[in-house]
Task: structure prediction
Amino acid sequence: MQGLKARALELLNDGTVSRVLGWKIGENTYDPEPAFFETAEAMEQFVYNNFCAANLSKYMIEASKLEGKTLVCLKPCDSYSFNQLLAEHRIDREKAYIIGVGCKGKLSIEKVKQSGLKGILSVTDTDPLKVETLYGDAEVAYKDAMLDRCHVCKGKEHVVYDELYGESEDTSDADRFEQVRAIEAMSPEEKFAFFQAELSKCIRCNACRNVCPACSCRKCVFDSNKFDSAQKANVDSFEEKMFHIIRAFHVAGRCTDCGECSRVCPQGIPLHLFNRKFIKDINALYGEYQAGADVDAKGPLTSFTTEDAEPGVVSQGGIV
Amino acid sequence: MKKIAITKLNDLYAAIAQNQSLLLPIKRAGQTNFGIWTEDAEVDLQTLKTVKSAKDAFFPQSENLYTCYKDGKKISIAPEKLQEESFVVFGMKGCDVRGAMVLDKVFLANPVDNYYAARREHGIIVSLACSQPEESCFCKAFGIDCAEPEGDVVTWLTADYLYWKPVTEKGEALTAQVADLLEDADDKAVSEQKAAIAATVEKLPYANISLEGWNGDALKEKFDSPLWEQLYKPCLACGTCTFVCPTCQCYDIKDYDTGNGIQRYRCWDSCMYSDFTMMAHGNNRNSQMQRFRQRFMHKLVYFPANNDGMYSCVGCGRCVDKCPSHLNILKVIKAFGKEGK
Result:
């Protein structure tokens, strides 16, 4: 981490970049916050540890409007989101200096808590995690504290960068579409019960939308004040479902499966499953496609070829 | 002091639910929130903090206020029925009970909010002491005793028993309803637990965070501080902090066109949202920095200035646990403390 900080500081001091977009040290190891650093003094607070889960690519939309270049730290999977935003002309490549930072899977304090630990006073980001709590000390295996998305890691390669720092590891040890297939295999009644139980927890905080790099509209349709319904009200269970389903449709073909939606949901709703269903169907209908992998690739849903699936596929119940 | 064996808690819930609806922490799809008790509900008293606070019991996230019906050229208006039956909220922690008292300052002051007042009048609070406070708890900073919370009945959960102490008339009446299930108990186990909780609270990292300088006198210097510009930056402008908060009380009122009438409803609003307090002339807070500042200024400066020093934060720490960007009120308080501003 010290080497990364020194390199970022060097680029800041020699004027290559005007600011650094990284993470600021929190109150504890597990709560670093995304931050812009503009001075050497501010950089003293710079941190990069295994709890730096936030995907910083979306902050580049605002940073692209600022004077000068912004040094942005991107993990391998974040680089897909950056590329996708680039493909959609939402960010300016010339305004970014990308350090592709190494990643060996990111940790979640929620996962540490789910292991049954309460009153966490300190935690290391090592394997295993050493956890000091008000009620005794414990250890948690690194894999058990990893975010769900890291179990289906996209690999250790950055798809866009100016320079690389640190080693990455492919941490995937699960099948990306296993849960989707499990839901597909459910009866309609079971599916309804599953989604109702999950989505009725939604509090309409909109964290999933606001963190999503694919949700980059300047003004979200749900924020319109011309509607009778409110984007902030969980009026009835139907509307809650509609919001998430509409959002999933809107990001279909553009979602890189970065997993931020599920990471930030305060109610632990596995929102990424909607997106993965679309990804799985797109793969089946239009051929394997990974959003953000290639900035010049044509989007499966935004380009037409004569080989495209006929709409009838949908009325026949889609691809299972 | 009364007690009931843990193994008989389901009988207690059933007995309470026989006479009124019972809300308590229920685990559903992996998360614990307040919900209405049913035979097959998975009651969860072990999770310290429900994701959402108990605020919905008195001030629901969405509620109808009245409905207008159109029949030809005739329009009739039907106000929503006010809460008339009593109900019990079981398992509220000290922070959430104080949260309701903060809401009282807003909704029970003139003009009284009838919808809220009716729920407060008919709601019976059975609070539960926090046997295992967690690191993000700082209710002590607001003078809350999580070892003996306020409420109509106060309870303590030990390994074998739930101890039960009625403290108000409402609490006595509820106790009488379930008297058959309760047995007399001495204070020993409760005293021991209270001492243990007090010792744990002293070890909490933020229990004694200083609120010095947070009052109405500091309004202008706090408002104008350059710190906000640095603090707000990672804010995603989502409403998580406001929607899990036991004291956030802002709401919006909207009309829903049902096709042959109008449902006027209100729903929680969030100062984090771009259309918050939008008026005909536009918006008086048009940057996220201003919206972010509003939340903390309201809780720590405006509210105490208007309510005899009462903060509209109760130190439950939900926002600390849930912010996607790891921003929170503790970081704000500490940032100002460090700068001495």
Chain B has two domains: 2-58+86-203, 216-257+266-339.
